[in-house]
Amino acid sequence: MKHSIDLAERIRGTYWHAAAILKLDLDSIVKAPLEELRFEIGGGAITRRVRADVGPMTTERDSLRIPLHWRARDHPNLFPVMHGGLHIANVGGNHIELRLLGEYRSPLGAVGAVADVVAGRRVAEKSLHAFLTEVVSRLQAGLIEHTEGLGVNGSAGSDPARPNSVDGG
Question: Per the CATH hierarchy, to which homologous superfamily does domain 2-148 belong?
Fold first, then answer.
């Protein structure tokens, strides 16, 4: 059984800046969080190591797309398979949107479909949301690190895309 995924997060920053950082550091921002998918449940967490294919990245004027495909590293027939992509787009006002789009296929045919209804879909969505949140966190860290390196004021309420003004007096 296939299920569509459409999760999105918006962050402060400019598209061109995020695209440049991703071109330089795609592995640590997108691929590293896929080494082990994790989601919190109750007082603990469930993790699953995955085998992921990432890229190649395609860019357009105001957006980019990173194809993603993954399956469980161990016992892949017992876990969902994900096909999709991470889309990053300019949404104006110095904000960008990261959107995880795609579909996952439940394992084990009819038995898997029943398990998916009971809890599997929630588990998959939590896992995918945790992945997207981790990518957002890593990209935001890259944006902050890069803007601080350029002498851009990164304080709350400032615009990370604009350099500090210099008073000539």
Answer: START domain (3.30.530.20)
